[in-house]
Amino acid sequence: MNANPNDAPLVLKLDKITKRFGALTANGDVSLDLRQGEILALLGENGAGKTTLMNILFGHYVADEGTVEVPGTDGSLQQLEPGSPNAALEAGIGMVHQHFTLAENLSALENILLGTEALTSFKSSRAKARQKLESLMERSGLSVDLNARISDLSVGEKQRVEILKALYRDARVLVLDEPTAVLTPQESESLFSTLQKLASEGLGIIFISHKLDEVLSASHRIAVLRGGRKVSDQPTEGCNKRQLAELMVGKTVPESNRDSKEAGAPLFVLQNVSTGQGRDAITNIDLELLSGEILGIAGVSGNGQGTLAKLISGLATPQSGSIVLNGAPLTTASARQMIDAGIARIPEDRHKDGIVGPMTVAENLAIETIRKPENHRFGFLKFGAIAERAREAITSYDIRCQGDKAPARLLSGGNIQKIVLARTLDASPVVVLAAQPSRGLDVGATADVHRRLLEARARGAGVILISEDLDELMRLSDRIAVIHRGVLSEPEKTESVDRGTLGLRMAGQSKEQAA
Amino acid sequence: MIRFEPREPASLKRLILIPTIAAVTALILASIPIAAAGLSVFEAYWLMATGAFGSLFTFTEMLTRATPLILTGLAAALAFRAKLWNIGAEGQLYAGALAAVAVGSGWIDAPTYVLLPIVVFSGALAGGLVMLGPTLLKTRLGVDEVVTTLLLNFIIILFVQMMLEGPMKDPMGMGWPQSEPMLDAAALPKLLPRMRIHAGLIIALISALGIYILLKRTVWGFEIRAVGENANAARHAGVPVTGTFIKVGLLSGALAGLAGVGEVAGLKGYLTADLSPGFGYSGIVVAMLAGLSPIGVIFAALFIASIFVGADSMSRATGVSNYLADLIVAMSLICVLISGIFLRFKVRFIGRKSVEGAGK
Predict the structure, then answer these.
(1) Min Cα–Cα distance to chain B from A383, Å
(2) List of chain B residues whose C-beta atoms are within 8 Å of the C-beta of residue A363
């Protein structure tokens, strides 16, 4: 990285922040400072305390110990009033959350102005605001149609609106929480070049990430959090991936890699299938899944992969075309039929579609097979057998919970995913549909998911892996296809695909253009 | 500053304790208007207590009043567990009563052991079929069942009035809009001589036990709970969501229909358009007081029945309006709904110094 702004004045200082939630210490004695014009990457696994720290900075939480300091009018550092987002905004701290906080039915301009105008003023000074924003856009290279409704904008554009919102309020510090989680590689690159530009104009930037590549390429300094504590804080120059990964995880995580292996015969075939409406519809999809392979489907969310997953889950019926499993067509689609045909389905939104939160771990493990004779006699549940199998699954899948009678909603995301894995994969399915299976999971849980998928592959099952994470796709898939605007490309051998081309094709360029 | 922290599943002790405290609070709050009416609060509540529990007669009267409330309470509790918002127990009760009278007042002539089951079954079936319509509209077309079930109440009650003024009017009824009396063979037996308490209570108690077992121990109950708690996940896991709604709708309507059967075949002996003083609506209160627990419904129904019967008796003795009963019932419902917060959250009062957001 160029230009290390080592002697620029401090714009932010977090001093010995400690925050506990019950027995859990989310942040322990964390100190962090940020200089004008500096890009600081905050690296850590899920649950390492990155988001908690930023929420304290922004006044959503109050630290149990420690202070947040920002320069006052005279330039000397002063303590920021804790627990007040307004004070944080006043002090020039802008935050771009992972999940955007925009009103979908208002225009970009209206969203940016929201909360900045006095309630008592009759006319809003739109013209002046627009002028200021236009000059901001010109300086920063962030261009957005200010009159467009938020609901019509792409994810990348929405993010630009969020950044403009912060800049409009004269932010001196910009915090971005996992800004690239929803972007294509190209969009990410353009985001980072914008951030460079903003930093060179004197903005202090903190971005939160767990992706090593982007942290290394886009920051001046890297701070690593692990288990709520800062374990490292050093200039990006001289860091390398391996060292950062170890700092982040604390132990070396064995990477799951697939062994090379001949795939078998066609197992599961979609022929010219169209269904769904609007943005997420799919049109004329052909897909041939072989036994013993993992077929990766890359794409930016909202390009039809949701509908494709629904279709294979039995929650949507094809409007045209046909689905063939083991040579026999599946006529009416229902979740029940898919389960009985041996199709394991791992839903994208595990909280919404995966578990019934208030029901117990045992009940959630049994729900797909509740009508099978092993779970009931004359319609009466066999509690003993259900609990017995639940305890086996809890042991063999290492589900961390207070026992088989604990409500599933009390479990962490990783353990909820393990419930889903246990109940779907234990039935030795012939086809596995995994939709964004590691989204939001930490490194350990992700490794678990990958191992299970590879095991299914080794057993001879066909696995369809829908993901936005290119690393995951490249590592696990035998073949990769790209879905864009509901059209699925011809799958290619992973060995012959490179990340850059894949990214361009996710963004909608044809294979020839991307090459 | 008040902070709410989510609580682990509440213990049984807490589940019983909190509604009890809510009921007591309601009685305390209701003592304000009693005092304003110029009555001694203790005297009023004493009169109410003796009015409901003072003698064998008043006690059986209270149980007689509780009988339809248990059934309509179960109708609401079962439907609400599946998040099927059946507000139409009142109409389903009338439909059940109408069907019971239709088959039980001379159309079929058979001995008791044949006729009575037919009467009971017809009433349940009629209630169930009334609820089937709104359920199908919900599952097929996404029509809000709160609206359809509520409005269906008025349609059914007007239909009953039409029948009572027309084809089903008793020719010997001196012109009153009432049905022909039911045959003796179609009547539910009395439980005690010279008292009004009837076998409908047994049906209600068995139903409560049955619904308890259904929800707790069977595959259907499992599916009902899953659909109620997270219909998306249930559908994804292969639970027949539409089928479950239809089962619940039929069963819920049937329970309310049974309440109607009990009132005509056990108590009145004939049908009039003022058969129910709002048992269907009170059933919703019963179910909410009971926290949607089928066994809890029994106790909640007894509580509400004793308030109603006790308040009637107090009203006769003192001249204070028996609307007081409605007031107490309404207050208990509000108190119970508020207490629901205490079941789900720990509430902490904390100083300004350590203010923070309500958790992640």
Answers:
(1) 8
(2) 222, 226
pLDDT in tens, A136-151: 888 887 888 888 888 8
Q: How far apart are CA B94 and CA B74, in angstroms?
A: 16
pLDDT at B356: 41
Q: What number of other Cβ atoms are within 10 A of residue A391's Cβ?
A: 16
User: What is the predicted pLDDT for the residue at A154?
Assistant: 77
Chain B CB within 8 Å of residue A24 CB: no
- Mind listing the pLDDT tens digit for each residue in A467-505? 887 888 888 999 999 998 889 999 989 888 887 788 778
Distance from CA of A499 to the nearest CA of B (A): 33
Residues of chain A with CATH 3.40.50.300: 9-92+172-180+202-249, 253-342+429-515
Q: Do B238 and A336 touch (CB under 8 A)?
A: yes
- Closest residue to B238, CB basis, from A368, A383, A410: A368
Lay out the sheet containing A204-209: strands in order across.
A93-96, A173-177, A204-209, A39-43, A221-226, A229-235
Chain B residues inside the 8 Å CB shell of A55: 357
**Digit-coded pLDDT (tens) for A340-395:** 999 999 998 888 899 999 999 999 999 999 999 999 999 999 999 999 999 999 99
User: Residue A376 and residue B234: Cβ atoms within 8 Å?
Assistant: no
Q: Is A336 in Cβ contact with B233 (below 8 Å)?
A: no
* Integer CA distances (angstroms), B256 to A15, A209, A272, B123, B296, in order: 65, 57, 50, 9, 17
Q: Between B262 and A505, where is the model more confident?
A: B262
Give residue A121's pLDDT.
63
DSSP, residue by residue, B44-69: HHHHHHHHHHSSHHHHHHHHHHHHHH
- Cα distances from A240 to residues A1, A222, A234, A329, A511, in angstroms, run 13, 11, 11, 51, 33
Judge contact between B253 and B129, C-beta under 8 A. yes
Per-residue model confidence as pLDDT tens digits over B26-76 = 888 888 888 888 888 888 889 989 999 999 999 999 999 999 999 999 999
Contact by Cβ (8 Å): A164, A193: no
C-alpha separations of A374 from A275, A371, B88 in Å = 36, 8, 38
- Which of A:308-367 have CB within 8 Å of B? 313-315, 334-336, 338-339, 345, 347, 352-359, 363, 367
pLDDT digits (tens, 9 = 90+) for B160-191: 999 999 888 888 878 788 998 999 889 999 99
- As assigned by CATH, the class of the A9-92+172-180+202-249 domain is alpha beta
For domain A253-342+429-515, which architecture applies?
Answer: 3-Layer(aba) Sandwich (3.40)
Q: Is the pLDDT of residue B357 over 60?
A: no
**Cβ–Cβ below 8 Å for A410 and B354:** no
**Is A119 strand, coil or helix?**
coil
Angle between helices B56-81 and B200-217 (to 10 degrees): 30
Model confidence pLDDT, tens digit, residues A409-420: 888 788 899 999
CB contact under 8 A, A355 and B233: yes
Mean pLDDT of chain B: 89
CB-based contact A358 B229, cutoff 8 Å: yes
Minimal Cα–Cα distance from B230 to chain A, Å? 5
Q: For residues A221 and A236, is the Cβ–Cβ distance under 8 A?
A: yes
Q: What is the nearest CA distance from B229 to chain A, expressed in angstroms?
A: 6
d(CA B201, CA A41): 70
A180 Cβ contact list (under 8 Å, min separation 6): A187, A188, A191, A209, A211, A214
CB contact under 8 A, A335 and B235: yes
pLDDT on residue B172? 83
